[in-house]
Design brief:
The chain is mostly helical and about 130 residues long. It contains 7 helices and 2 strands. The chain has a two-stranded parallel ribbon with strand order 1-2. The relative contact order is 0.09.
């Protein structure tokens, strides 16, 4: 069958090498169209580093309310480390306390977390919220 196609006058005119090049170009064209369609519909977005960054950004925005305060009931440990005097260890303690006690009902409850006293609380109280 390949020989018969090659005997056709159209294929004789364009030549074997050009025919191979045309086939490769068509392959890339259609695979590019498929890829762009899949990306546009979100089918390829899951699991990519770019989408992981988008998810993190959305989470950070959701953890802060309109006044720019960090919601200690929804913030991740990484987000909590942005607060003055809160390192990785204290942030982990906050998350653990929140998970074990069902969240904070008042920002002053944060002082019940091991390692967070009045001094640390005074430094961060204007930067945090417990949400609505």
């Amino acid at each position: 069958m390949i020989l018969k196609l090659h005997e056709n006058t159209f294929f004789k005119k364009i030549g074997t090498e050009r025919l191979k090049l045309l086939a490769v170009l068509l392959f890339f064209l259609f695979s590019g169209i498929w890829y762009s369609h899949s990306f546009a519909t979100g089918a390829l977005e899951m699991g990519t580093p770019a989408s992981a960054e988008k998810i993190t950004e959305k989470r950070e925005i959701n953890a802060e309310n309109d006044a720019g305060r960090l919601n200690i009931n929804t913030a991740t440990a990484k987000e909590l480390t942005r607060l003055s005097g809160i390192g990785e260890k204290k942030a982990a303690e906050i998350v653990t306390y929140r998970e074990e006690n069902g969240g904070f009902s008042d920002i002053a409850e944060l002082m019940r977390v091991s390692g967070i006293g009045e001094k640390t609380f005074a430094e961060i109280q204007d930067e945090i919220t417990v949400g609505e």
